[in-house]
Task: inverse folding
């Protein structure tokens, strides 16, 4: 069972690693890395799903009867593109966050936001 | 031309987006986007008419036959949603130019419209398509542009909110992708119609079960259903006001649509509600959502935050109606999607007008606005009354149906809880009203005047719609009922 | 004028709403603005009276407006109970408007235009409520009434007014949405209709338990009827300017509440079903408790308006009891009491307002001896007190008589004792005010006063005996309603005819 579902195990392990990083790490870049690993696990899942034992690339040729399923591969090309776009957008956000907060640590950003809130509240009370 | 309406619905805003880049002049781009959105709106009206008279429209993309090619499938439910999305988008866009003048630097105006149109494309695409993978693609189109739009907010918190939304949204979308993959693994098809026929054969397998869970959790993340709602308040509060108005009125509706589509059509009623205790779970979460979010709303000092939490609570109502899995319950949910879009659209647009005049929407800045911006505040009052569910507003209509659905099934205690929940709405709406009408304005706000016409016209269009559809309920009720019935396989 | 009765019926509702436009337009010219208001009042009375004649002539008048939701229509229909309510409300609106003009001007209140607008909307809502042909229509106007009176309650805009407004709106909206709406939806599902039908709309074999629960929901849900424990809004709303308190909280709002209770009892449940329900007994005792407790609380109030407010809570309990007794005497007593109490209580409120405007006094303990300064007002106060208590020669006598009859017929002797006790309490908390006003040295009625050594002080406090009455419009209003109290004793026949026609159908 362990060997037969080898690819699935890889997928699940990668998925968990990715999710764990997203949740556990406070560094925004690391979070994005986790997210990418998480997405990659899904890509692998799709790709391995389409592979058939002994199947070749889906090109019509004499003597070949088994082909891998091309559709998931095509689908996942799209998903990869989407993934790249997400990562790029995420990274650019991090750059701008770094510019305005001077930090890419979740806790510090949260702290700054809270401080700002507190100081405005105080200013209000004084007024 | 008429035959190609389903694809035109999506492709017009999609093509309009890059053209905006070419036009490259703020005002021109605005008019052009308005035109594109308006076209989409008229198409959605035509589509709805067509569906109401001649039934489901199936459109094969590129002429490839359905299970193999991509199919766009418009039934009552889709047409209804398309109408809501494109309609709200058009009305909101009307005020966009004035609003972003103050909130977004001038060199970014064009990008704003590009992203807005892409986001619109994504939402329309999700609804129009009949292909599960296509849903994912459009979902990402709308989400990616949404992240960027939110990041355009003029406070630095907007960046942080956008980042958080990006993480949550991507996880949600990836979950949906996993679910779709598992479904494909079991059935070898991605067409929703086809899936719904093939899934029952393999319904007992663990794979289908897992795929269902992945899809539902993913959709609920997008939906901001309690307790997966944490990304929403900040995203709504710090995004540019126009974006908030657009998303608050439409984005969550699209997610609710996905929830309905996947549970009712793709997986099928019997699987969704008998194999899995979805009813109990969703009803409990819906109720929790109503109470927790409404209570949180009461304690907010930023009015956008306040109404953002109120949106989460309103999603709770939709979820409760959905969880009943009866025709009336689903009708209530669909009606509330329509009605909630109208009320939140009006309220958030009015807030955009307040931002335009006052600069922000901290509650303390609302002092005296009842006198200074009477029309804008009146819109918030009417929108608020609608939220509470006062008769002659749309809120009453959906509340009536939800109650009917609950009492019909003998869920009396839940009905009482729902009504108590709407009392919380009275509290948070009245907090705003009291400040606006009974307090003298702050010193720095003495000069504030009524919002310009470019705000008042769209705001009051929505406000009047709030009242009109609260009195003339034929359109909304008819369509919602027909959609609900067709989901249950009852011929209307 | 050749208007069809149907048109008149619609005008009754629409005209006050249209008048708001004219009022807003003429907002800068108080004279025109108030002229518009009074003209509307007169026209409204004309319409209602014509409708009354139409009804007496045996014509059936009904109007269908709109189907809001499938099967749920907004439609109107005239029957004697609604007619009675409309007559009382429209007549007293005129009187109150006259009073309000004097009061608001001499008090130099702000936002008077908003005041008259909301006033007009409220009366339009009351008309709609009175003539509604089904529960759904009634509910809509019930809510409109709540919302349109909120700005009136919070008119002063002070912290206290806001707090009062919050309680007012909070209780009225929450009871109506949580209980009333739920009851309506359930009734709709159980009975399949919401049309007011003589004898009730439930099938004969309706589940008694469900019907009982529904009845409780209705009685609790109609928060405007101020049955304890949902009465708090009434005293809270007393922060409003006096004309508001008098019209809305002696006539329009509270009477809309008990009117709805009567409507529900007679036309939704039907008296036969009502008498069989187990929860009726419970609700009767609840209403009885409400009557007694409110009277006791009223005794302890030093603020005149608060005392009157609690007195109203208690009197509303009478009407609810009459409705729940489910006999014809009970119904007749209740519906007559709507009118009698309206005239009595509005006079009392007018007097309270007059005292406030002229002498700036709101505490009862400060009112010793004021009879010499405001003789007309205090005589009116005395007569109105008699009417509330229910002794001749005032109108209140008749309604109390029928209510008592009702309790005897149904052998509800506990309730009879409660009604009698409450009458005694009425005497104890109302009459001393008038007596002390004229005889400040009288010490026998000390029960409600806090200071015992007032005798000397009041003598010193009354240096001048010069007569200083309220502004003329207010005074006229007071005299008119007082005369109303007396007339209703001598000439109760039309009222009685209307009340007794309720159960037989058309008058």
Result:
């Amino acid at each position: 069972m362990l060997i037969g579902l080898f690819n699935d195990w890889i997928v699940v392990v990668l998925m968990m690693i990715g999710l764990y990083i997203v949740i556990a790490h406070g560094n925004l870049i690391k979070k994005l890395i986790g997210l990418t690993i998480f997405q990659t696990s899904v890509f692998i899942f799709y790709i391995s799903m389409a592979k058939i034992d002994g199947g070749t690339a889906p090109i019509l040729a004499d003597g070949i009867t088994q082909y891998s399923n091309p559709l998931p591969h095509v689908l996942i090309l799209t998903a990869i593109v989407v993934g790249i776009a997400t990562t790029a957008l995420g990274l650019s956000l991090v750059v701008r966050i770094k510019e305005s907060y001077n930090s890419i640590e979740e806790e510090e950003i949260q702290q700054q936001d809270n401080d700002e809130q507190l100081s405005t509240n105080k200013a209000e009370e004084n007024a | 031309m008429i035959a190609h309406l389903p694809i035109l619905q999506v492709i017009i805003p999609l093509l309009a987006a890059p053209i905006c880049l070419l036009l490259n002049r703020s005002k021109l781009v605005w008019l052009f986007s308005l035109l594109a959105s308006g076209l989409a709106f008229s198409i959605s009206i035509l589509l709805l008419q067509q569906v109401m008279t001649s039934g489901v429209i199936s459109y094969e993309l590129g002429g490839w036959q359905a299970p193999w090619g991509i199919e766009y499938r418009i039934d009552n439910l889709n047409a209804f949603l398309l109408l809501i999305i494109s309609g709200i988008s058009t009305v909101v866009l009307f005020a966009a130019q004035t609003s972003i003048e103050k909130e977004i630097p001038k060199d970014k105006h064009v990008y704003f419209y590009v992203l807005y149109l892409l986001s619109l494309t994504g939402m329309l695409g999700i609804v129009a398509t009949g292909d599960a993978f296509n849903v994912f693609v459009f979902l990402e189109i709308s989400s990616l542009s949404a992240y960027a739009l939110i990041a355009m907010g003029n406070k630095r918190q907007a960046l942080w909110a956008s980042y958080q939304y990006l993480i949550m949204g991507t996880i949600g979308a990836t979950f949906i992708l996993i679910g779709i993959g598992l479904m494909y693994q079991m059935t070898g098809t991605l067409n929703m119609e086809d899936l719904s026929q093939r899934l029952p054969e393999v319904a007992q397998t663990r794979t289908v079960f897992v795929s269902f869970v992945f899809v539902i959790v993913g959709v609920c993340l997008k939906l901001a259903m309690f307790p997966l709602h944490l990304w929403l308040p900040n995203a709504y509060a710090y995004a540019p006001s126009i974006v908030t108005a657009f998303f608050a009125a439409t984005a969550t509706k699209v997610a609710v649509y996905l929830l309905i589509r996947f549970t009712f059509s793709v997986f099928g009623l019997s699987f969704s509600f008998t194999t899995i205790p979805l009813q109990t779970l969703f009803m409990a979460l819906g109720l929790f959502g109503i109470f927790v979010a409404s209570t949180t709303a009461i304690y907010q000092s930023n009015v956008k935050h306040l109404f953002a939490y109120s949106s989460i609570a309103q999603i709770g109502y939709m979820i409760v109606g959905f969880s009943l899995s009866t025709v009336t319950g689903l009708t209530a949910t669909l009606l509330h999607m329509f009605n909630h879009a109208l009320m939140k659209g009006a309220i958030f647009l009015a807030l955009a007008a307040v931002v335009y005049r006052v600069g922000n929407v901290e509650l303390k800045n609302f002092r005296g606005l009842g006198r200074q911006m009477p029309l804008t505040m009146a819109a918030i009052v009417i929108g608020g009354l609608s939220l509470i569910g006062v008769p002659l507003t749309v809120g009453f209509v959906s509340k009536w149906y939800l109650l009917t659905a609950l009492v019909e099934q003998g869920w009396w205690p839940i009905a009482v809880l729902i009504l108590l929940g709407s009392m919380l709405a009275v509290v948070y709406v009245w907090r705003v009203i009291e400040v606006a009408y009974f307090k003298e304005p702050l010193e720095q706000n003495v000069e504030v005047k009524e919002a310009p016409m470019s705000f008042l016209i769209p705001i009051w269009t929505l406000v009047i719609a709030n009242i009109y559809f609260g009195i003339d309920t034929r359109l909304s009720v008819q369509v919602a009922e027909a959609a609900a019935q067709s989901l249950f396989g009852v011929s209307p | 004028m050749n208007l069809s009765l149907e048109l008149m019926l619609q005008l009754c509702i629409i005209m006050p709403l249209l008048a708001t436009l004219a009022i807003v337009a003429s907002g800068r010219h108080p004279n025109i603005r108030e002229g518009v208001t009074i003209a509307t009042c007169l026209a409204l009375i004309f319409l209602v009276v014509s409708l009354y004649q139409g009804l007496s002539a045996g014509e059936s008048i009904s109007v269908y407006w709109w189907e809001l939701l499938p099967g749920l229509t907004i439609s109107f229909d005239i029957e004697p109970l609604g007619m009675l309510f409309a007559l009382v409300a429209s007549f007293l609106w005129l009187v109150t408007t006259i009073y309000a003009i004097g009061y608001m001007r001499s008090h130099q209140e702000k936002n008077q235009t908003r005041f008259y607008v909301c006033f007009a909307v409220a009366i339009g809502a009351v008309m709609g409520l009175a003539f509604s042909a089904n529960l759904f229509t009634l509910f809509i106007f019930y809510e409109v009434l709540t919302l349109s009176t909120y700005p009136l309650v919070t008119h002063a805009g002070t912290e206290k007014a806001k707090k009062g407004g919050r309680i007012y709106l909070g209780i009225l909206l929450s009871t109506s949405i949580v209980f009333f709406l739920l009851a309506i939806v359930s009734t709709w599902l159980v009975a399949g209709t919401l049309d007011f039908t003589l004898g009730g709309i439930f099938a004969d074999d309706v589940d008694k338990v469900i019907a009982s629960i529904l009845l409780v929901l209705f009685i609790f849900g109609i928060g405007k009827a101020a049955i304890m424990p949902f009465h708090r809004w009434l005293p809270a709303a007393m922060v409003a300017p006096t004309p508001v308190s008098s019209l809305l909280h002696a006539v329009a709002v509270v009477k809309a509440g008990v009117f709805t209770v009567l409507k529900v009892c007679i036309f939704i449940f039907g008296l036969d079903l009502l008498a069989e329900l187990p929860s009726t007994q419970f609700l009767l005792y609840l209403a009885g408790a409400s009557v007694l407790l409110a009277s006791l609380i009223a005794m302890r109030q030093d603020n005149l308006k608060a005392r009157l407010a609690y007195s109203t809570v208690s009197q509303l309990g009478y009407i609810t009891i009459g409705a729940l007794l489910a006999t014809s005497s009970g119904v007749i007593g209740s519906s007559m009491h709507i009118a009698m109490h309206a005239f009595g209580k509005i006079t009392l409120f007018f007097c309270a307002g007059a005292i406030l405007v002229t002498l700036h006094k709101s505490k009862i303990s400060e009112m010793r001896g004021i009879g010499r300064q405001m003789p007309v007002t205090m005589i009116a106060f005395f007569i109105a007190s008699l009417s509330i208590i229910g002794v001749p020669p005032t109108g209140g006598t008749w309604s109390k008589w029928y209510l008592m009859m009702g309790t005897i017929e149904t052998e509800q002797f506990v309730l009879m004792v409660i009604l009698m006790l409450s009458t005694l309490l009425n005497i104890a908390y109302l009459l001393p005010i008038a007596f002390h006003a004229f005889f400040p040295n009288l010490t026998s009625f000390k029960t409600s006063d806090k200071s015992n050594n007032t005798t000397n002080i009041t003598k010193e406090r009354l240096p001048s005996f010069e007569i200083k009455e309220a502004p003329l419009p207010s005074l006229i209003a007071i005299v008119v309603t007082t005369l109303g109290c007396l007339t209703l004793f001598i000439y109760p026949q039309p009222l009685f005819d209307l009340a007794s026609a309720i159960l037989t159908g058309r008058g």
